[in-house]
Amino acid sequence: MAAAWPSFLRGGAFLRNRAAVMRQDSLWAHAFRPLARRLGLEDAWILSFCGYNNRRVRNAFGGHRARRVLILLPHCIQMARCKAGILDELEACYDCGLCPVGDYMNAALLNRWEGRIFNRSHKAYRDAREYRPDLIVAVSCTDRLLKGLTKLPEIPSYVIPLALPHGMCVDTDFNVPHLLAAMESLVEPRRPHGEVQPLRREGIA
Q: Domain limits of the chain?
């Protein structure tokens, strides 16, 4: 039955057949989306699909953690008025505490994570395919999370939704402790020996 219905695959079988699983699952995810939209439940529907995906990813990496991981973040987590050039260099962040970029930057430096901040989805997809990670951990709005899961069906992805206190694409926020917990449970640690000091720059957003 599992061979006939890829959606039932778990663990190693899920990872080996990831592309087929996601192609099939995306069919019913998109098929029920118009109905969810008419009922005013579109975001809830997408988030439930993302949660279902995340449970299977946690199960798949429960026995062995991923070694080659790529974190994908949207540029809109940076304050709109901030002039720090974090798209070119994450360490350009002022770490002023006014947006989540500083908290992520310090965690990434401490744990030696590989991450990217993008202003276009197609650039994120291209870099992910070129990097060829064992796992993607992605933060985005609900619509882009669903799009990413279906655009990159071959790469296991753990997804975290954005909070939109000011609307789409402006001064967004996300749960940094959720990201930290996901990396802790899914990824082989790469933290170097000794104490690593967080980067501090002069300035404010």
A: 6-186
